[in-house]
């Protein structure tokens, strides 16, 4: 049994090693090949007797400077990614809490009350879906249409800010139920606070989306990366000879790969494979809400 487990782990490790679906290789292989080809011509010049070895070029761009720049770039992108994940984690928990509060606290006096409650529970799913699409610059009409009444649907898709409009629908429902004395003042306040949390979380996501890393920093880093990799063959050819070609190719792949990873995750709300799985998160929320609705119908 231990041998089988070891084999499974080994196969899994190899699958991950050569998995190109989420690898950064497709994004940077052209750059790595370019510097590898350039290294080939440097080696060729060395073979023709030209003095191309310049080890003193190492001091032009200290490795530690480039490493610090890349580390700052990667850490900034990673902070944005994890902040986005925490914001969406709060959205999920808040929607669950709000669904529970509505299900438990709002009294059902007649069939109309029950229908309104179910429609409002569906609005919680709509909030998650329109928030996801809002951050992607989309509307997602086909996703939200089955969850809304015709009146809400036609009014919602003409709104400028769909998550805020859905939050307004939720607030209107709670206030109407308070007017009908189906909830008390304390329950109204508690549920309104949950809606406020949802609005705050969307604001936090918008802050990430609309505050990119300064453009000048990205340009400066690209210039230093190019200069470092273009000088690398001249620095290493005296020691490595023709091995300079694979050496430079691998180093350029690693450095540009780090930059490409940072670029990909700095906006965590897109559709790339390394972005947050917002579609799956919305499906989870919808399943949770459907469970509440099924319990309400019993």
Structure description:
The chain is 77% helix and 0% strand. The chain is mainly α. It has a domain at 85-211 and 277-297. Helix 3 (63-105) packs antiparallel against helix 4 (111-135), helix 7 packs antiparallel against helix 8 and helix 9 runs antiparallel to helix 10. The mean pLDDT is 84. It has 11 helices and no strands.
SSE order and pairing:
Elements lengths: L1 H16 L7 H23 L15 H43 L5 H25 L5 H4 L5 H7 L5 H18 L5 H25 L5 H26 L3 H22 L12 H20 L1
Helix pairs in contact: 2-9, 2-10, 3-4, 3-8, 3-9, 3-10, 3-11, 4-7, 4-11, 7-8, 9-10
Defining key terms:
298 residues; mainly alpha; 11 helices; elongated
Short description:
By secondary structure, the protein is mostly helical. Helix content is 77%, strand content 0%.
**Count of helix runs:** 11
Structural class estimated from helices and strands: mainly alpha
Low-confidence stretches: none
Based on Cα principal axes, name the global outline.
elongated
**What percentage of amino acids are in beta strands?**
under 5%
Main sheet attributes: strand count, strand direction, barrel closure: none
Number of strands: 0
What letter string, H or E per element, gives the SSE order? HHHHHHHHHHH
Average pLDDT level: 84
Level of helix content? over 70%
C-alpha termini separation: 48 Å
* Rg result: 28 Å
């Amino acid at each position: 049994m231990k041998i089988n487990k070891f084999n499974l782990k080994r196969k899994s490790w190899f699958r991950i090693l050569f998995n190109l679906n989420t690898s950064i290789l497709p994004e940077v292989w052209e750059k790595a090949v370019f510097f590898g080809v350039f290294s080939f011509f440097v080696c060729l010049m060395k073979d023709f007797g030209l003095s191309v070895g310049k080890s003193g070029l190492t001091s032009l761009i200290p490795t530690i400077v480039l490493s610090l720049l890349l580390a700052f770039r990667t850490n900034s992108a990673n902070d944005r990614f994890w902040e986005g994940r925490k914001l969406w984690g709060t959205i999920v928990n808040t929607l669950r809490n709000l669904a529970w509060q509505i299900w438990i606290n709002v009294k059902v006096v007649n069939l109309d009350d029950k229908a309104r409650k179910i429609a409002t529970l569906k609005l919680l799913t709509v909030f998650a879906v329109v928030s996801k699409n809002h951050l992607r610059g989309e509307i997602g009409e086909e996703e939200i249409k089955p969850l809304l009444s015709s009146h809400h649907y036609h009014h919602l898709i003409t709104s400028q800010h769909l998550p805020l409009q859905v939050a307004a629908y939720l607030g209107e429902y709670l206030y109407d139920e308070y007017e009908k004395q189906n909830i008390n003042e304390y329950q109204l306040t508690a549920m309104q606070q949950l809606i406020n949390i949802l609005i705050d979380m969307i604001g936090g996501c918008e802050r990430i989306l609309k505050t990119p890393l300064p453009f000048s920093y990205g340009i400066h880093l690209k210039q230093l990366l190019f200069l470092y990799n273009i000088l690398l063959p001249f620095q290493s050819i005296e020691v490595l000879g023709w091995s300079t070609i694979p050496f430079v190719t691998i180093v350029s792949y690693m450095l540009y790969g780090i930059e490409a990873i940072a670029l990909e995750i700095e906006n965590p709300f897109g559709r790339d494979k390394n972005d947050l799985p917002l579609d799956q998160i919305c499906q989870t929320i919808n399943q949770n809400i459907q469970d509440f609705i099924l319990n309400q119908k019993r």
